[in-house]
Structures are given as C-alpha cells and as structure tokens.
Design goal:
- This protein is α/β, with parallel strands linked by helices.
- The protein has one domain: 3-Layer(aba) Sandwich (Rossmann fold).
- Helix content is 35%, strand content 22%.
- The chain has an 8-stranded mixed β-sheet, with helices on both faces.
- The radius of gyration is 16 Å and the shape is globular.
Length: 227
C-alpha cells in the first residue's frame, strides 16, 4: 500500500509517496524533469518489499509547491531537508535523468548521507547544445516556469558540479539506456570516470529504463542495493 504525505521543508510544501515496512532500510527515489513520484509505480512495489521507499515530488512537480524560485541547488537542498524532516540519517538514493543530477548533487554535498547511489540515464554535468524547450499542450503536472529555470543549468552546468563528483563516497551504479537514449554514453561514462567507486551498466531500453523495462531495471538495481 502506498501512502501519500506532505511536509513543509525549506518553507515550501513537498509531497511524497511512501511504501514498504516501517523501520526498514530507507530508499529515496527522484524522478526526471516534469515527472512526479507516481512515475516510479512500475518498480516501486517491488523495491518496497523489504525497504521503506520514499518517492519525492521535487519542487514544481506533482503535488509539491509551485514557487517563485527554482534551481537544481534548491532541489538538492529540499532533498536534504526532507531527510532531516523524516529523521533519516542515511539512505540509498536512485535518481532518473534530472533526478539523477539532483541525486549526485546531494551525494557530493553530504556524502555521509547516501549509502548506495543509482543514477539512471543521468548525464554528467557537462555543457551541451541548448535546445529551446517547447511547452506541451494542455494542463501540466508541473510548473513550466520550473522547466525554464532549470534547463539552462542542465545545458551549462556549474563547473564545480563536475569536480564535486570526486567527493562522492557512495558505491555508485550508473545505468545507461543504450543507443536509443538521447543521453550520450560518454556523458554517463564521465560519471563513472569521476566518481571514485562507480561502474556503468547498459540496459538497452532507451531513456525511460524503469518504465520501459521494469524487470531489467530491477534485475540491475536490486542486487546492487543488496550488496
């Protein structure tokens, strides 16, 4: 059974879903740009069989607050604030795409808080060609102002984020979605080159590994988390 909760963190309301036995080893899930915690539904229940799983709506997403300010650093601080509010000293962390960027920013800011780290088709913080975002039609489950704020950070990352990867102490698994993913393999390989204890695994399912190929995702992730 999945529970929906909200907490006030850093002056804003954050929504999250929780599943799994109380008191079990905690696992935090961070979704991609424009996605909510419900994006993890294909794998959440399996991950929650023996773990307490928390799936967060990052600010500007899902049930979390729409705010006047957005940045990846603020999202990083929201994650750390959520851990404090939940009384979680140390968690395993999985982040997909932009959620993976937030995840490695968390892991380099407070390395002692993260046990094992999974980065699902997340790019290293390297400059890339900027493509103007196009707003989807209709109602959105996220704040378009958030997209306009964080996309420039993804296109031209702070150089300190790249050097900061060396501060991550967590065993790290970087999953790459294979040649049909829009994330270049080199951008994923750079993570494992920079993070001291990291390896890359290819799951040729495209960018949305955990939704396109949930069984393959779990087969890669669960043994890593249990090691």
């Amino acid at each position: 059974m999945t529970e929906r909760h909200t907490l006030t963190v850093n002056g804003i309301e954050l929504a999250y879903r929780a599943a799994g036995p109380e008191g079990a080893e905690p696992l935090l899930l961070l979704a991609a740009l424009g996605e909510s915690s419900e994006d993890w539904a294909p794998v959440r229940d399996e991950l929650a069989r023996e773990r307490r799983v928390y799936a967060l709506d990052l600010r500007g997403h899902g049930g979390s607050a729409r705010t006047a300010q957005y940045s990846l650093e603020l999202m990083r601080d929201d994650v750390l604030g959520l851990l404090d509010a939940l009384g979680l000293g140390r968690v395993d962390l999985i982040g997909h795409s932009m959620g993976g960027v937030v995840a490695y920013l968390v892991a380099q800011r407070q390395p002692h808080r993260i046990g094992r780290l999974v980065l699902e088709d997340a790019p290293a913080p390297l400059p890339r060609e900027a493509v103007p975002p196009v707003r989807p039609a209709g109602d959105l489950d996220f704040d378009w102002a958030m997209v306009l704020a964080v996309r420039p950070q993804l296109d031209r990352p702070d150089p300190s984020w790249l050097t900061g990867l060396a501060r991550i102490t967590s065993p790290t698994l970087a999953l790459w979605g294979g040649p049909t993913s829009h994330i270049p393999r080199s951008a994923v390989a750079e993570l494992t080159d920079r993070i001291p204890d990291a390896r890359t695994l290819t799951v040729p399912a495209g960018h949305l590994i955990h939704t396109t190929a949930p069984a393959e995702f779990l087969a890669a992730v669960e043994p890593f988390l249990a090691a």
